[in-house]
Automatic annotation (TrEMBL):
Residues 20-462 form the Major facilitator superfamily (MFS) profile domain. This is Sugar porter family MFS transporter. InterPro entries: MFS_dom, MFS_sugar_transport-like, MFS_trans_sf, Myo-inositol_Transporter, Sugar/inositol_transpt, Sugar_transporter_CS. Gene3D superfamilies: MFS general substrate transporter like domains (1.20.1250.20). Keywords: Cell membrane, Membrane, Sugar transport, Transmembrane, Transmembrane helix, Transport. It is found in: Cell membrane. Belongs to the major facilitator superfamily. Sugar transporter (TC 2.A.1.1) family. Coiled coil: none annotated. The chain crosses the membrane at residues 17-42, 54-74, 86-106, 112-132, 152-171, 183-205, 264-290, 310-328, 335-357, 369-396, 408-428, 440-458.
Length: 491
């Protein structure tokens, strides 16, 4: 009897973990949808509010500034009020901001609501990977943590598909469509639906057992562990003791815990910052946020450019599914190395392709075989990113830091990610005007740098419990202190 019921019971436990991970990942869908929906609303917003290019730049980029603020504060907040409560707050802000953007009357209130959307986006980039990594069993943690990226790309796809559908079906994004409101306003208001779902679902998920242990609530942590992994009471109690051994219960996590006198940040934090920064600096946003105007600039029609943007997002979704299937099979480190190599080669092809472009009647045109090769190169880049750096970086950031500093360290890394997003989006239009091929050459250099960072700085975390990785980091720190002690004695 026990032979047949044990696997079934464990499957039921994993089913609950999967369900709660999906709930946590809904925030990723909101992230993708609310950041990409602006793609189709820029022109009607500019006309409706009579904005200058500076005003449009503020509306588009202020979300990224808000995301950096949200990412920086979320780890600290999650360590004080808990993971599900942060999800609920983010959902409420998402919903209010969606309505606020849809009903805005001018630049300042639209910018305010876009800033709040950014704060929520930054929050979900931290809380999703943090929560999933803390509830998922080691054997399937990579696949479950990858759900965050899957939700993001589905959100981007939904936004781009919505924009393309409106452009094809209506006379324009500013056409009257429902209750007297222009269609672009309903693009924003539609974000209320997933936000409300996310908010209600946050009431259903249990608190992270590692958070509960850190707050001295061992009994509650044991109950959650039994619910998530279907462990016996004794096994759950042993797991609680293991978690507690990696925590300093006498002090709450602080930013100063990340610092080192010799290197500024602890080495593991620097690696996390580098991974998060390079994920942005390889230029993936250029494909998704500027793709429509980019393809128009090299000779494609408006309808074809919308179609290519949607196609790229479909490629992104399919490749992310592949990443979910592979991440717990071949490991995080190997996927990142493969992805870095693929991104570098494809970006070199795109850079060379754009260098062959000519100007005809004031428009940039890619002719001959290089037009096809450049399009293929751009989509190979999307595939290489989506099977590796898209999901794997957030998986690693959720599991590579010691238990005691995980929330704060993840916030710092996510802030670096969003800061680099701001830099990328602010510099690309200028770089494009100076040299389109040169801008892609810079992104290719970032991809090459990412390979070396992974090769020399990243350790494999596949199938390892979070407490095991904490012990490895602590052991490494002890060895470093011993080496310093021996050197001091020798002097």
């Amino acid at each position: 009897m026990s032979v047949t019921t044990a696997p079934q019971a464990r499957l039921r436990g994993h089913s609950q973990v999967i369900l709660f991970s999906v709930v946590a990942a809904i925030g990723g869908f909101l992230f993708g949808f609310d950041t990409a929906i602006i793609n189709g609303a820029v022109d009607p917003i500019e006309k409706s509010f009579h904005l200058t290019s500076v005003g449009i730049g503020v509306v588009v980029s202020i979300t990224l500034f808000g995301a950096a603020l949200g990412a920086f504060s979320t780890g600290w907040l999650a360590d004080r009020i808990g993971r599900p409560r942060v999800m609920l707050i983010a959902a409420a802000v998402f919903a209010a901001s969606a309505v606020g953007c849809g009903l805005s009357t001018g630049l300042w209130d639209l910018s305010f609501w876009r800033l709040l959307i950014g704060v929520s986006v930054g929050a979900v980039t931290v809380i999703g990977p943090l929560y999933i990594s803390e509830i998922a069993p080691a054997a399937i943690r990579g696949r479950l943590s990858s759900l965050q990226q899957m939700a993001i790309v589905l959100g981007i796809f939904a936004a781009l598909l919505s924009d393309a559908s409106i452009a094809a079906a209506l006379s324009g994004a500013d056409a009257l469509h429902f209750l007297g409101l222009p269609a672009w306003r309903w693009m924003f208001i539609a974000g209320v639906v997933p936000a409300v779902i996310y908010g209600f679902a946050s009431f259903l998920v249990p608190e992270s057992p590692r958070y509960l242990v850190a707050r001295g609530r061992d009994a509650a942590a044991r109950r959650v562990l039994q619910r998530l992994e279907n462990d016996s009471a004794d096994a759950a109690a042993a797991k609680v003791l293991e978690i507690r051994s990696t925590l300093d219960s006498a002090a709450r996590p602080r930013f100063s815990d990340l610092l080192s006198r010799r290197t500024g940040f602890l080495p593991i934090v620097w690696i996390g910052i580098a991974l998060a920064a390079l994920q942005s600096l390889v230029g993936i946003d250029v494909i998704f946020y500027y793709s429509t105007s980019l393809w128009q600039s090299v000779g494609f029609s408006e309808s074809a450019s919308f179609g290519l943007s949607v196609f790229s997002s479909i490629v992104n979704v399919v490749a992310t599914v592949v990443a979910i299937l592979l991440i717990d099979r071949i490991g995080r480190r190997r996927l990142l190395l493969i992805g870095s190599a693929g991104m570098f080669v494809s970006l070199v092809v795109v850079a060379v392709g754009f260098s062959t472009a000519t100007t005809v009647d004031g428009a940039v045109v890619l002719g001959g075989a290089w037009g096809v090769l450049t399009l293929v190169g751009a989509n190979v880049f999307v595939v290489a990113f989506a099977i590796s750096w898209g999901p794997v970086v957030w998986v690693l950031l959720g599991e590579m830091f010691p238990n005691r500093i995980r929330g704060v360290a993840l916030s710092v890394a996510a802030t670096a990610n969003w800061t680099c997003e701001v830099i990328l989006n602010l510099t690309f239009p200028t770089l494009r005007d100076i040299s389109l091929s040169g801008s892609y050459a810079i992104y290719a250099l970032m991809a090459l740098t990412s390979w070396f960072v992974v090769y020399f700085g990243v350790r494999e975390t596949r199938a390892r419990e979070l407490e095991d990785m904490t012990a490895s980091v602590n052991a490494s720190a002890v060895r470093s202190r011993r080496r310093l002690t021996r050197r001091s004695a020798a002097r």
